[in-house]
Amino acid sequence: MTKRVYIKTYGCQMNVYDSARMADVLAPLGFAVAESLEDADMVVLNTCHIREKAAEKVYSELGRLNRLKRRRRASGGEFLIAVAGCVAQAEGEEMRRRAPFVDIVCGPQAYHRLPELIERAKSDPARGAFDTEFPVESKFDHLPEAASPQGVSAFLSVQEGCDKFCTFCVVPYTRGAELSRPVAAVLAEARRLVGHGAREITLLGQNVNAYHGAAPGESAGGGTGWGLGRLVRALAAIEGLRRIRYTTSHPLDMDDELIAAHRDVPALMPFLHLPVQSGSDAVLARMNRRHDADAYRRVVGRLRAARPDLALSSDFIVGFPGESDADFAATLRLVEDVFYAQAFSFKYSPRPGTPAAEMPDQVPEVVKAERLAELQALLKRQQDRFNRAAVGQTMPVLFDRPGRSAGQLAGRSPWLQPVHVDADARDMGTMRDVRILAAHANSLAGELASQATAVASVPDAAEPERVPA
Ligand code: 5AD
Ligand code: SF4
């Protein structure tokens, strides 16, 4: 009998990709993906540890799952609870204590070992199976080929981990050292995705523009490898692939080759998520970002010189330890100077084990809340302005999911804005010129322009869930 696994994803797009790959790992064991918890024999929580709130959500969900497990067991059924992702990595031992009913704990670098963890958990249910070792070899060498259909807009993980050690961030501890997948593996996976109907690929990595994958024919450790700019050019040559994006980038790794790709490769979309975190040089230094605010402004200037219609997005942290009113004002100034089409902003959340959590002058919660509200109001004004400027324009939209109501499709503009259009379901997977009629808070509404750009139709393709990075 087929078993079913329900995978719930928290956090970044990397986790969305990892969840699809976990489904690939579990498929040979006879697990199909369940649409809801009620149908599932096993649940995987693919978790996020980036801020405290994200981690706490996992424990409240686990309480619910424990009750479900007890009910299932009482009626003679089976129910396995697995916790994967960054909370598993960071809190494996703590979880054993706080949630002893969890059967499997599996870090982000260990999910290729899920089959043996399931075996271990079943043979010793009282102990469960915990695996948060960083393996010497890359999990990518042990994963089955990516097979879970991702639809028109697909994610492809090319790089993992981070060696930057920003002082607020858990990623270098939960995801481990930086690692790039070889070029040949990335190109092969991209071709398979396109063969399954993908027309847009977003390359993923915690530090994606630090990519330095082994060149085709080169051994994994040998040579200097290809940078992201060169990889993007090679991907753009794949027939049927219309759009390429990448996320998330670090300003320091924005090299000449990548900036030139923004100038030369039309398939590389004119939208870039380039986190700056703060506009204050003093705060940037304490964050160990290794660049100042003007260096960021210069990178943005070079990118816009290469691709004048480039729209930018960023991440910001307010209330980092020691942040003064003047520091915060510098962040507002940077936002005014750069102009963002969209952005994510967060209150600083001390993470256990990171250097900033131990820094003096932690900022009171009320001050963080005030600053966040002010920053978000400014960012919202910019986003509204950006979206309003689209009204009256005609732009290519790649339809990647059904719209809100029957007879509608939704897609993305080149600048990642969601666009809703009255269109036939058969247009799913095509890129069409759309005239923008109205701008709403988080999306645009448009109508098909008479001129359509012909692309092969991809019926029945579904859009993967999108979550902010
Ligand atoms: N507190 C608040 N925000 C954080 N981020 C990372 N760590 C923290 C933290 N400790 C934010 C950064 C990063 C984004 C993914 O999450 O802005 O770019
Ligand atoms: Fe975290 Fe990004 Fe800094 Fe790496 S570069 S430590 S992932 S914020």
Structure description:
The protein has 469 residues and is an alpha/beta fold. It has three domains: 3-131, Methylthiotransferase, N-terminal domain (Rossmann fold), CATH 3.40.50; 139-388, pyruvate-formate lyase- activating enzyme; 390-469, Nucleic acid-binding proteins (OB fold (Dihydrolipoamide Acetyltransferase, E2P)), CATH 2.40.50.140. The protein contains twelve helices and 19 strands. It has helices at 13-26, 52-74, 85-98, 114-123, 171-174, 183-195, 228-236, 256-264, 281-286, 293-306, 325-338, 365-388, and strands at residues 3-9, 31-33, 42-47, 80-84, 104-106, 129-131, 153-157, 159-160, 179-180, 200-204, 243-247, 271-273, 311-318, 342-347, 394-402, 408-412, 418-422, 431-439, 444-448. A six-stranded parallel beta sheet has the order 2-1-3-4-5-6, with helices on both faces. A five-stranded mixed barrel has the order 15-16-17-19-18. Strands 7-10-11 form a three-stranded parallel beta sheet, with helices on both faces. Iron/sulfur cluster (SF4) binds next to α5.
In short:
With 469 residues, the protein is α/β, with parallel strands linked by helices. It is 33% helix and 20% strand.
